[in-house]
Amino acid sequence: MDTQNPSAPSRAQSRNAGKNHPHAGGLFHDNTRHTTRFTVVGNHLAQHPELSLVARGLALYLQSLPAGARVGIRSLAARFPEGTTRIAAALRDLETHGYLRRERVRIPGGRVITRTTSCNQPGRRDAEPDRPRRRARRPTPDKPRRKLPPVPKPGYPAPELLRIATEVLAALRRHDPRLLLSATDTEHLAPGVAAWLEREVTPSAVRHALTADLPPEDLRRPAAFLAHRLTDRLPPPPPYRAPAPPPEIRHPFQNCDGCNRVFRAPEPGRCRDCRGDLPEAA
Predict the structure, then answer these.
(1) Counting beta carbons within 10 angstroms of the beta carbon of residue 196, is it exposed (0 to 12), middle (13 to 18) or buried (19 or more)?
(2) Residue 55 class from Cβ within 10 Å (0-12 exposed, 13-18 middle, 19+ buried)?
(3) Would you state the torsion angle of the CA atoms of residues 195, 201, 204, 206, taken in this order, to the nearest 10 degrees?
(4) What is the pLDDT of residue 1?
(5) Where do the domains of the chain lie?
(6) Contact at 8 Å (CB) between 29 and 9?
(7) Cα–Cα distance measured from residue 58 to residue 52, given in angstroms and rounded to the nearest whole number
(8) Which residue, of 76, 106, 160, 246, has the fewest CB within 10 Å?
(9) Number of Cα atoms under 13 Å in the Cβ half of residue 267
(10) pTM given for the model
(11) What pLDDT was estimated at residue 17?
């Protein structure tokens, strides 16, 4: 904003020109560089061939105002002596030549206002209005994921048991799309299903227990819902069954090679009495 107009001669040039041409007429410049409170205006506005001095002066005044200033016709007429008629005509001229945009907008609450935009470069219809800068919002960190409730654990987490449990959980979405689980949720719930399978509950029975009578509302946390059901509806362990005694071993009948007596033995040979008569038995 502190760039000087290149078409205007500098202060030193104007003084030299006066010395070289003491009797020359025309315009001279005595320029001082501004460092504060100044507005840069293009020559396309200052020397516009079709805008009146009132319109050009009004455009300069509008460009010098801060964003949010009141620039209605009545407000401008109260500030300048030209009156509402000439100010309204100057605003229309500026709008025609692209130095001004006015639009009716509805603000929160339903009230309709006129938004006025001063353009320092005509023809830029896509330019955004000069609005007060807002402080950039800091990105909010993601909320930590809530932990899932614990689930029952099997007495012996055999790999085959966990594999079947994982298949049961993966198939739940076929019964209700709301039961679509992530890999992390499935890994957390699989031991709970394995605990059911370990209690002699079939995979189809586990699936029915988890999908029956689902609530009609949206399941925001399906994994937490299933974890609750696996714990709340866990069946008791099967009743204790004493191991069955081993079956009695009954050998086939054999004829004794010594006395021809019939006895039971796994292989042919001598009976117990005849084996006692052998010399090596003494």
Answers:
(1) buried
(2) buried
(3) -40
(4) 44
(5) 11-19+36-118, 159-232
(6) yes
(7) 10
(8) 246
(9) 1
(10) 0.40
(11) 47
Residue 264, both tokens = 């039971």
Query: Which class is domain 11-19+36-118?
Result: mainly alpha
Arithmetic mean of pLDDT, 145-171:
93
Task: Provide the sign of the torsion angle of the four alpha carbons 252, 256, 262, 263, taken in this order.
Answer: negative
| Share above pLDDT 70 across residues of the chain, in percent, rounded to a whole number | 82
> What would the pLDDT profile of 70-90 be if each residue is shown by its tens digit?
888 888 888 899 888 998 898
Q: Which of 208, 248, 249 is nearest to 229 (CA)?
A: 208
Both structure tokens of 220: 């925001």
